[in-house]
Amino acid sequence: MEKRKKVIIIGAGPAGLTAAYEFLEKNGKKSYDVVILEESQDIGGISKTVKYNGNRMDIGGHRFFSKDDRVMEFWSKLMPVQGKNSFDDETLGREKPLVEGGPNPEVDDNVMLIRQRVSRIYYLKKFFDYPISMKFETFKNMGFFRTMKAGFSYLKSVFIKKEETSLENFYINRFGKVLYSMFFEKYTEKLWGRHPSEISADWGAQRVKGISIKVVLKDMFHKAFGKKNKENTETSLIEQFWYPKYGPGQLWETLADKVVENGAVLKKGYCVKNLNFKNGKIVSVDCEVNGKLETLEGDIFISSMPMNDLVAGFKGIDVPKRIKNIAKGLPFRDFITVGLLVDKLNLENKTNIKTLGNIVPDCWIYVQEPEVKMCRIQIFNNWSPYLVKDAESKVWIGLEYTCDEGDKYWNMTDKEFIDFAIDELVSMNIISKDQVEDSHRERIKKAYPAYFDTYKDIDKLIKYVNGIENLYCIGRNGQHRYNNMDHSMVTAMEAVKNIRNGEVSKDNIWNVNTEKEYHEEKKE
After folding, report:
1. Environment class of residue 498 by beta-carbon count within 10 Å: exposed (0-12), middle (13-18) or buried (19+)?
2. Given CA atoms 245, 191, 156, 120 in this order, what sign does their dihedral have?
3. Residue 101: its pLDDT value, please?
4. Range of the domain at 242
5. Same domain assignment for residues 468 and 319
């Protein structure tokens, strides 16, 4: 019998857990011994769910939606979808519903809810659709003169294109300079701590993809004439998504239980410090566990750890200085979120969408106001009422901030930062101070891979790590790419497929979410 290969997977987030599952399905445990190393005591990485005083927080907000049917089927098998249909067929263009029946969330816990996507921009103390729509309400909120300026500015961008050497030019080419200045410039600077002119256009291609005024108008046309389907819908324009009853962490915890049941070994509290080489291949990893080093040997190594930490931990191999510098210089943006339990919001629901308690229907509110540091507000009640202990009479919200580890915001005490966040919310007249009943702060290191500094040379780093035969980089931090959950999962699927098939090239793993159709509108 052929000896089973030992696979070491670094990280128990969406990518790492998906890789473990893919190795062990279809009697894979006959061929592979799988060990998952997780630095923390949590499952799901940034997609975990934080539990606090009977309420739950989704770190950053996670919509379960993908254009890749493999991912949708993966999720639905793991956690059945409520009701008769998974998604409205007309909205997403499926010939048949993914499931014919589903559990009832009132009595079943292991269930995906079907949620309505509502996200708006709060600017000039008014609500604007996100992405920006061409509705009368938008023009009314902007005012006549702003609207005229924005219109002429957009027309100019149609005929005079800027070279896309930066995120700033990327946005101006799609929206015109006026709309860029209103809705992208200051917010992007707040989010990343850098002006858009300093950020690579790759970030726009990664996250905004094909969104532009032209695409928004086309989307409105498809809705009006019933032609909308999944293939011609940009991810930012979807109207429904799935969501686990108790938050995203519930699904990843379920998957973790599944892979352990299938034979994987999951080790929590194992922080990978070194990757040890012999004859150009990795042979083992050194992990810090309770203050001591423990060495684990392996044949195949799958990494979702940050690329700078990965390369810094290479031992027994002479890493070129330039590669070390590129890896060391890759930037991240760290994340702070504050959960607030309040009696009510000082925001009136003027939409036709009914909500529990008649609160505004938004999942996210993008805070465009430049005088506050806050980036977004999550309303957890609208993601799932089961995230809130008393969803009928209380509102549980998350206030999102980006910062750099070690700066003044990161180093504030919990009380200092919570008071700061409350004061910002009060200044926008979204709550009153006396409405706050409970609060909690979470800090997340390296939440968002950033697209500046040495990122411009990342192709050289990718080429180097791809040359290590038994190393595969997957996931958001593992590829230093601002991917969604589904893209991170697909990188894992592609990596395992290559290993099973003996495929040497790793290009397909790195090409996830970079194909041309993601960047350009489909020709009809």
Report:
1. middle
2. positive
3. 56
4. 63-117+238-246
5. yes
φ/ψ bin of 23: left (φ > 0), alpha (ψ from -120 to 50), beta (otherwise):
alpha
The CATH number of residue 378's host domain is: 3.90.660.10
What pLDDT is attached to residue 351? 85
Q: Indicate whether 52 belongs to any domain.
A: no
Q: Pick from 77, 517, 12: which is nearest to 253 by CA?
A: 12
Separation of alpha carbons 441 and 17, rounded Å = 27
CB 268 within 8 A of CB 35: no
H helices of 297-427, where?
307-312, 321-329, 380-383, 414-427
Extract the tokens encoding 516.
């041309």
Among 57, 117, 61, 64, residue whose Cα is nearest residue 86: 64
Report pTM. Answer: 0.88
Give domain status of residue 57, yes or no.
no
> What amino acid occupies position 392?
E
242 and 260 fall within a common domain: no
Gap between the terminal Cα atoms of the chain: 53
Q: What is the DSSP letter of 217?
A: H
Residue 133 in this model has a pLDDT that exceeds 80: no
pLDDT, one tens digit per residue, over 375-388 is 999 999 999 999 99
CB 187 within 8 A of CB 194: no
Is the pLDDT at 84 greater than 50? The verdict is no
The tens digit of pLDDT for each residue in 10-45 reads 999 999 999 999 999 866 678 999 999 999 999 999
Going by C-alpha positions, the residue among 230, 223, 315 that lies closest to residue 278 is 315
**pLDDT digits 0-9 by tens, 408-459:** 999 999 999 999 999 999 999 999 999 999 999 999 999 999 999 999 999 9
CA distances from 170 to 166, 203, 236, 254 (A): 6, 9, 17, 40
